[in-house]
Amino acid sequence: MPELPETETIARDLDAAIAHRTIVEVRVTRPDVLREVTAGELRRRVRDTSIERVWRRAKLVVMDLSSRDRLVVQPRFTGALLIDGGALPQEERRYSTLELALNDGRAVHYRDIRRLGTVSLMNETRFSRYAGALGLEPLADDFTLERLSAILRASRQSLKRVLMDQRRLVGVGNIYANEVLWHSGLDPSRSAARLTAEERARLHIAIGRVLRSAVAARGTSFRDYRDASGERGTFAAMLEAYGREGQPCRRCGRPLVGTHAIDGRATVFCFRCQR
Predict the structure, then answer these.
(1) Domain span holding position 241
(2) What CATH code is carried by the domain that includes residue 23?
(3) Neighbour count for residue 158 (Cβ, 10 Å)
(4) pLDDT in tens, the chain (275 residues)
(5) Active-site positions?
(6) Residue of 98, 116, 115 lying closest to 107 (CA atoms)
């Protein structure tokens, strides 16, 4: 957490709210979240630049700056980018690691309770190299059944592992891998290379539907995830597998099974429906 739907929500909110604003000051209170740049260099390169666009790549929130640098935030488990118009709760400010003061009086805080996320500053060349090592975007037009099939046929690893491999397919973490596999009726432990053409087609449809539904619900909130306004996502109410171990499958009624044996993460699936 956050996965694709959460970072997509944050990026869209920020783009609508702060694009074309100028960063007038940078305050770093927890420099251990910084990567590839020191606090002093970050201030020098970011101060007095304008934010041209905010967008998502994989599980990253990317700010394009007028200097042609890119501020790249990977929220990981407890990170959030919060817009502060003066009413940000003190509890959120307490965990602010970085503050970008804007020319309209507002600020953007990178809040990270456990400080496992990162903030990087990259020039165009570095970002291109970094992003180029990441896999396909599952909501992009070029994520075709043929391209997914090529990824699956090339691996004998478990289907769930392949879905979560960011070098192959980006943005799908543990929550949405569980959901996609339930919706497609596929056993998470199946070898990816052994899927039939019909099963690959079901999987391709399920990936798009689950992720788009989660984006529409503004992500999944359990504890820490918040959108840029500090609000919770609502997709948790729509989960069919993740977090429902022992509860009845909504297709067949059989209790859902939970295991950590597939990839060390919590995997929940229906032993009857998912083959």
Answers:
(1) 145-269
(2) 3.20.190.10
(3) 19
(4) 689 999 999 999 999 999 999 999 999 999 999 999 999 999 999 999 999 999 999 999 999 999 999 999 999 989 999 999 988 888 888 999 999 999 999 999 999 999 999 999 999 999 999 999 999 999 999 999 999 999 999 999 999 999 999 999 999 999 999 999 999 999 999 999 999 999 999 999 999 999 999 999 999 987 778 888 888 899 999 999 999 999 999 999 999 999 999 999 999 999 999 99
(5) 2-3, 59, 265
(6) 98
Q: Where are the beta strands (DSSP E) in the chain?
A: 23-28, 34-35, 51-57, 60-65, 70-74, 79-84, 96-102, 107-112, 118-122, 257-259, 267-269
Burial of residue 227 (CB within 10 Å: 0-12, 13-18, 19+) is: buried
| Distance (Å, whole) CA 206 – CA 137 | 15
| pTM of structure | 0.94
Which residue among 91, 108, 132 closes a domain?
A: 132
Domain count, the chain: 2
Displacement of CA 200 from its chain's centroid (Å): 23
User: Is 135 within 8 Å of 191 (Cβ atoms)?
Assistant: no
Strand, helix or coil for residue 179: helix
